[in-house]
Design a protein that fits this description.
Strand content: 5-15%
Number of helices: 3
Distance between the termini: 61 Å
Low-confidence stretches: none
Oligomer: single chain
Strand order of the largest sheet: 1-2
Largest sheet: 2 strands, antiparallel
Helix content: 40-55%
Order of helices and strands: HHHEE
Length: about 100
């Protein structure tokens, strides 16, 4: 089987890094980001997660790709939480860590 190579320029859609947009971000998205953070990333254990958080807190996250991506996810989560608080959409509930569920 022969592969054809096309060295012609291709057109891409690129968004400048300084671009700001408003978007609708729901609690479902928020929950999925939290699940990605705690269950979808390759942390060895909770101690490793703690080490990555310490890197981020020390502003030393650009050399480690996992820390860099965790910083991105945490930034989005934090922005969402801050906006939800401003809108009065945050409720306090009790969580049972043994049953791993919210207690109503």
């Amino acid at each position: 089987m022969s592969e054809s190579t096309n060295n012609s320029p291709i057109e891409l859609e690129i968004i400048d890094q300084g671009t700001e947009v408003l978007l609708k971000f729901t609690g479902v998205h928020y929950k999925r980001l939290q699940e990605l953070l705690f269950h979808g990333l390759p942390f060895r254990d909770l101690e490793h997660l703690g080490d990555v958080v310490k890197q981020i807190q020390a502003n030393d996250y650009t050399k480690d790709s996992l820390a860099y991506h965790v910083h991105t996810i945490l930034s989005i989560i934090n922005d969402f939480e801050a906006e939800a608080k401003k809108l009065g959409k945050v409720n306090k509930k009790k969580y049972d860590p043994i049953a791993k569920k919210v207690i109503d």
